[in-house]
UniProtKB/TrEMBL annotation:
Keywords, sorted A to Z: Cell membrane, Lipoprotein, Membrane, Palmitate, Signal
Keyword flag Signal: yes
TM region(s), chain numbering: none
Entry GO terms, CC: outer membrane-bounded periplasmic space
Keyword flag Transmembrane helix: no
Protein name from the UniProt record: Flagellar assembly protein T C-terminal domain-containing protein
Taxonomic lineage from the root: unclassified sequences, metagenomes, ecological metagenomes
Length: 313
């Protein structure tokens, strides 16, 4: 037994410090391992432009503004990889320009090289209102009005998550945001503050919008945790299998995936709806090298793998 009392020798104290340092290192390693396992693979998602179904007809472009805010909030969460879809038209135009031969040759804007998302997120704005009670007296300066009275803002959204492979709606969630203003009222006049700006965020409508977006992100991330990561086999070379999972999606050396071969696409003869495809589990592969956007894996046993096959956790 090591003496830890006042009579402990210098050597005994050094042993105590050494053991404490070892314990701290082991605990720290366990903590980071747990965090890494909890983080998991990041799904590739895309946010489609919102549809404005509210009665709001002000100066703001709610569909674009709400799309931008949700996209930014998902990126800030660092739990998903968000692909650009709002400006997809600009990307395609740049590719067409590069293909026309009127620009210097580059590999950065080749036609047809757009990454596909696993999940498409679509939103609808169902409520965007701002009610006020009390005195309308006050002052206005550069689009901002301050006066007495009380008000409440309400923002309602419907968020749908769609599997891009099957077009199946995986989840549909309704989220809300409410904010009250009392004592004095801060309003926005037509031609004043823009949607999403710092001035807007200080208003009841701005606060309600942020609450609704935060609730939407919480629901989206919770739903994604229940959906297994899905990637694609992009190349097969001998015993090496190239996957679409890379550093940006959180892939790590040692990750194991099951390979699925897609069979015939199943289509409803009456509606034309794509119902999915027949799948056959072919075996497993294990990652041994990770790059930024892709990784290399080796086959675990006699596994038949083809380009285009699906891989899941």
């Amino acid at each position: 037994m090591i003496n830890t009392g006042p009579g402990a020798t210098r050597r005994q104290r050094r042993k105590i410090v050494f053991f404490l340092l070892i314990a701290a290192v082991l605990l720290t390693g366990a903590f980071y391992t747990t965090c890494a396992e909890a983080a998991g693979l990041k799904k590739l998602v895309a946010v489609s432009r919102f549809e404005n179904k509210s009665n709001w007809s002000g100066q703001w472009s709610l569909d674009r503004g709400m799309t931008d805010q949700l996209t930014d909030a998902l990126m800030q969460s660092k739990k998903v990889t968000v692909l650009e879809r709002e400006t997809l038209g600009d990307v395609i135009s740049e590719q067409n320009l590069a293909a026309s031969g009127r620009t210097m040759k580059s590999k950065s804007a080749r036609t047809g090289k757009i990454t596909s998302a696993q999940i498409l997120i679509k939103g609808a704005i169902t409520e965007f209102s701002n009610s006020s009670k009390g005195s309308d007296t006050g002052v206005s300066f550069k689009g901002i009005s301050v006066g007495g009275g009380r008000g409440e803002a309400h923002v309602g959204l419907i968020i749908r998550m769609i599997d891009t492979t099957t077009s199946q709606v995986l989840a549909s969630k309704r989220v809300e945001g409410k904010a009250k203003a009392g004592g004095f009222r801060l309003g926005i006049n037509r031609g004043g503050i823009g949607f999403g700006t710092k001035g807007f965020k200080k208003t009841p409508l701005g606060k309600a919008t942020q609450i609704a977006i935060d609730n939407a992100v919480e629901q989206i991330l919770a739903t994604l945790e229940e959906i297994p990561y899905q990637g694609r086999v992009i190349k097969v070379s001998g015993s090496s299998v190239y996957l679409s999972a890379g550093e940006r999606t959180g892939a790590s050396v040692g990750d194991v995936f099951t390979v699925y071969n897609l069979g015939e696409e199943l289509v409803d003869p009456d509606t034309g709806e794509i119902l999915g495809s027949e799948e056959e589990a072919m075996g497993q592969i294990k990652i041994y090298k990770v790059m930024k956007k892709f990784s290399k894996a080796k086959k675990l046993g006699n596994v038949e793998v083809r380009k285009g096959d699906i891989v899941r956790e």
